[in-house]
Amino acid sequence: MNIPREPLARALTENDEVLFNRVIIAHSFWQKLFGLLPYPPLQPGEAMLLPYTRRVHTFGMRFHIDVGYLDKEGRLLYVETLPPQRLGSFLRAAAHVLEAPKGSLENLPPRSRILFAPLQGETTPRETKSQTGSGVASR
Question: The pTM is what?
Answer without folding.
Answer: 0.85
